[in-house]
Amino acid sequence: MKILSVNCGSSSVKYSLFEMKNEKKIAWGVVECIGLREACYVKQTINSKETKNSLRIANHTEALKLIIESLLDKENGSISDISEICVVGHRIVHGGNKFSKAVLVTEKMKRELKECFALAPLHNPAHYAGIIAVEKMLPKIPSVLVFDTAFHQTIPDYAYMYAIPYEYYKKDHIRKYGFHGSSHKYVSQIAATMLGKSLNKLKLIIAHLGNGSSITAVKKGKVIDTSMGFTPLQGVVMGTRCGDIDPAIICYILNKYPQQYKDANSLSSLMNNESGLLGVSGVSSDVRTILKMIRMGNKRSKLAFEMLCYSVKKYIGSYHGILNGIDGLIFTAGIGENSPIVRKLICKNLHALGIEIDTNKNNTYSNEQKFISTPESRVKVMVIPTNEELMIAREAKICFQSAH
Ligand code: AMP
Fold first, then answer.
1. Which residues, 6 or more positions from 105, have their beta carbon under 8 angstroms from its beta carbon?
2. Which residues contact 360 (CB under 8 A, 6 or more apart)?
3. Does ligand 1 come within 6 angstroms of the Cβ of 201?
4. 393 and which of 18, 46, 238, 267 could share a cystine (Cβ 3.0–4.6 Å)?
5. pLDDT of residue 188
């Protein structure tokens, strides 16, 4: 059984084709800069090296056409007939209050997804375009929507509510939803295997640290709190997002700079695109560049970096309290998997919480899952490469099989 995982952004389509018998990724790639003068198609298969092509691609349908053609390619393709793809799983960032689990695509589901556009205006319309493109290209193959918000459905009401007038929850469904659900679910399952215990017996904190970051508290396999909120803006300091700030700052800026900030969009851009590491350092949103600038003596980069690590540390402390102790702390995603210095700074002076990391283990590069805590550490600290695409394929498989 082969399943195609698709992640459509506003100007990109990422894909992975899995053979579900052994969960092996057999082909993957990305089409970027769709609709621009020159798009870029990077692809690879289990049997062929990465290739890169520049070409003109007007929309998601053309991108999907290109992807399907390359999957069918006689020489370097991975399938001989389109019917070998059993299901397509689509990553959907925001399911709002409409979707609590993966669903098969129907006309009704598409209508309901459209009602969630306003909750993730950068992501959900792009996902929708991808669904329509897949329908055009693969009309006989069922599609499943897999939501980033689904894994967080178990958060209790006192944790997901905001203390604003209740009518906004009732009328507009303003509440915490949480994101990166596929990643948090995947790494918590791997952590249980690494610890040799059932997820039902574990209390975990997961630090998904990438361009966007979220920290999640998982008890007995269920999320009890997460740092992102109504949108992916809340929580820790991120690449270009401010994370938690006093909301009154926004009113203050709006009143003080009415010429510069005329509407919600301009303020949203300030908080989503011009803040975080980039906003504080004035240099970059990328941790690698920030670290380079720190080595060159750049003070604002140092400050931005310290703010990021401090904000993650605060969430770990807070969730450690809520969970009344933890068994495991997991680092994942671009920064969490690749930056020993970030992990070191976050875990520094957390002995009181039973967290102690081994410098050698932390510094040794590996792209495999590993423990980085000392043997004495009460909490097992792990680095686990995430695999959201596989999680999407797994969820799509379960949803498809239960519907048939
Ligand atoms: P993601 O959103 O999970 O793809 O993570 C992307 C981010 O990971 C980039 O913006 C970088 O800041 C960070 N990253 C990737 N590789 C490294 C590395 N070797 N050291 C530090 N940060 C890294």
1. 90, 131, 135, 142, 143, 144, 145
2. none
3. no
4. 18
5. 98
Q: 148 catalytic, yes or no?
A: yes
Query: Of all atoms in ligand 1, which is nearest to the CA of residue 333?
Result: 3
| DSSP-assigned states of every residue in 205-265 | EEEEESSSEEEEEEETTEEEEES--SSTTSSS--SS---S--THHHHHHHHH-TTT--SHH
Place of tokens 């007939």: 81
Backbone angles phi, psi at 296, to 5 degrees: -85, 5
Judge if the beta carbon of residue 339 lies within 6 A of ligand 1.
yes
How far is the C-alpha of 15 from the C-alpha of 67, rounded, in Å?
8
Closest CA to 150 of 95, 82, 202: 95
Among 184, 237, 278, 339, which residue has the most ligand 1 atoms within 8 Å of its CB, making it the best to mutate? 339
Q: What is the pLDDT of residue 61?
A: 92
Q: Are 114 and 366 in contact (CB under 8 A)?
A: no
211, amino acid identity? N
Q: What is residue 371's three-state secondary structure?
A: strand
Residues of the chain under the 70 pLDDT cut: none
Nearest-5° angle of CA 189, CA 185, CA 149?
Answer: 170
| Ligand 1 centroid from CA 333, angstroms | 7
Q: What is the pLDDT of residue 121?
A: 83
| Cross-sheet strand order for the sheet of 213-219 | 222-226, 213-219, 203-209, 328-332, 380-383, 370-371
pTM over 0.90: yes
* Positive or negative: CA dihedral 104, 110, 113, 115: negative
Pocket flag, ligand 1, residue 30 (CB < 6 Å): no
Query: Does ligand 1 lie within 6 Å of residue 338's CB atom?
Result: yes
Residue extent(s) of CATH 3.30.420.40 domains in the chain? 2-147, 197-388
Class of domain 197-388: alpha beta
* Residue 276 Cβ contacting ligand 1 at under 6 Å: no
Given the residues 81, 148, 172, 286, select the one marked as catalytic.
148
Phi/psi of residue 330, nearest 5 degrees: -120, 130
Q: Both tokens of residue 322? A: 């809520």
Ligand 1: distance of its center to the CA of 217 in Å? 22
For atom 8 of ligand 1, which residue has the closest CA? 334
Question: What is the CATH number assigned to the segment(s) 2-147?
Answer: 3.30.420.40
Q: Is the CB of 290 under 6 A from ligand 1?
A: no
